[in-house]
């Protein structure tokens, strides 16, 4: 039995932060950082059966083209991803009344639709990228004692960075997800793929310097930009993917992260129309989730 201090429930029986009850989420779940993006997505649904808001965690569940979907905001960062993934998992895989892990586990399909900054100058602003893997520089997963999956990439990267006389302030872990089947859709197969660096913040942890210096020296971004491991490059930087991939793998869920590239860190540019880029990302995500035959 999981004690009340560990699995915290509200008086109505809902999970502590998300304020959701079992049955209120679909098996196909879109995660977004921005709470306002939730309604932008659910307004495309044919019907919405549930709207719940608690802090930065806004959840809408509904149906589109006969498929039940949930969209939930995580807010920014893997500290929030920790809460969202654990509580979503508890909703399907823990019997909340008996406080016991269920004998039969449910696999969720998690699709992040987020924004990101491109590391590589050849990646156009507004384009959409699938994270084939995530390099975690955010610090969440070591608390779970997870060593990383497909660690070859991480090892090769560490060697490359050391060989160039630089180091990341944290030792990165590499996570490659079990991708959901909906990516077999032709639109999913055509997506450019790269490795996403998940940072612990937006400014210094991504190498940005306004008034304060960053220990992620611009030279390090150049080094990361040059790294190529069996054709895989580090393509972009954001703040959730490694947490989603790491926890989804550990909990037995499938996950994919799609990023609309709003900034180009190589070229020093930012999208003139970020709303259009996010719109295109939402259209693509909903197509993948609803057109499962890929017709
Ligand atoms: C930073 O501006 C935020 O944008 C990206 C980052 O991961 C971070 O959450 O994602 P979202 O657009 O989903 O919020
Ligand atoms: N989100 C990020 O985390 N970084 C960027 O550069 C753009 C969006």
Which secondary structure elements does this structure contain, and how are they paired or packed?
Blueprint: E1 28-32, H1 35-42, E2 47-54, E3 57-64, E4 67-73, H2 78-93, E5 94-95, E6 100-101, E7 109-118, E8 128-137, H3 152-163, E9 173-175, H4 186-189, E10 193-199, H5 218-226, E11 228-229, E12 232-238, H6 241-251, E13 254-264, E14 269-270, H7 274-290
Parallel strand pairs: 1-4, 1-7, 7-13, 8-10, 10-12
Antiparallel strand pairs: 2-3, 3-4, 5-6, 7-12, 8-9, 8-13, 11-12, 13-14
The structure holds 1-O-phosphono-alpha-D-ribofuranose and uracil.
Order of helices and strands: EHEEEHEEEEHEHEHEEHEEH
Instruction: Report the bound ligands by name, code or SMILES.
Output: 1-O-phosphono-alpha-D-ribofuranose, uracil
CATH architecture: 3-Layer(aba) Sandwich
The first-level CATH class name: Alpha Beta
The Cα radius of gyration reads 19 Å
Describe what this molecule looks like in 3D.
It contains seven helices and 14 strands. It is an alpha/beta fold. The chain has a single domain, classed as Nucleoside phosphorylase domain (Rossmann fold, 3-Layer(aba) Sandwich). β5 and β6 form a beta hairpin. It is globular, with a radius of gyration of 19 Å. The structure holds 1-O-phosphono-alpha-D-ribofuranose and uracil (URA). The site of uracil has 10 residues, from β7, β12 and β13. 1-O-phosphono-alpha-D-ribofuranose binds next to β7.
């Amino acid at each position: 039995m999981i004690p009340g201090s560990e699995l915290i429930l509200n008086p109505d029986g809902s999970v502590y932060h998300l304020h959701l009850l079992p049955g209120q989420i679909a098996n196909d779940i879109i995660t977004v950082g921005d709470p306002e993006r939730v309604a932008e997505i659910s307004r495309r649904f044919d019907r919405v059966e549930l709207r719940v808001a608690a802090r930065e965690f806004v959840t809408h569940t509904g149906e589109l083209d006969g498929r039940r979907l949930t969209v939930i905001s995580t807010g920014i960062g893997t500290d929030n991803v920790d809460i969202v993934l654990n509580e979503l998992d508890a909703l399907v895989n823990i019997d909340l009344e008996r406080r016991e892990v269920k004998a039969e586990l449910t696999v969720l399909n998690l699709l992040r639709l987020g924004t990101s900054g491109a590391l590589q100058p050849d990646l156009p602003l507004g384009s959409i990228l699938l994270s084939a893997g995530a390099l975690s520089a955010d610090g969440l997963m070591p608390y779970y004692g997870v060593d990383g999956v497909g660690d070859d990439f991480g090892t090769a990267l560490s060697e490359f960075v050391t060989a160039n006389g630089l180091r990341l302030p944290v030792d990165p872990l590499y996570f490659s997800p079990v991708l959901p089947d909906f990516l077999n859709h032709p639109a999913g197969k055509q997506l450019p793929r790269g490795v996403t660096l998940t940072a612990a913040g937006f400014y210094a942890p991504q190498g940005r310097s306004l008034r304060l210096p960053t220990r992620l020296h611009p030279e390090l971004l150049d080094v990361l930009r040059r790294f190529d491991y069996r054709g895989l490059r580090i393509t972009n930087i954001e703040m959730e993917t490694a947490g989603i991939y790491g926890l989804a793998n550990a909990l037995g869920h499938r996950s994919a992260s799609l990023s609309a590239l709003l900034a180009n860190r190589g070229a020093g540019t930012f999208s003139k129309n970020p709303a259009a880029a996010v719109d295109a990302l939402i259209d693509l995500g909903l197509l993948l989730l609803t057109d499962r035959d890929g017709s």
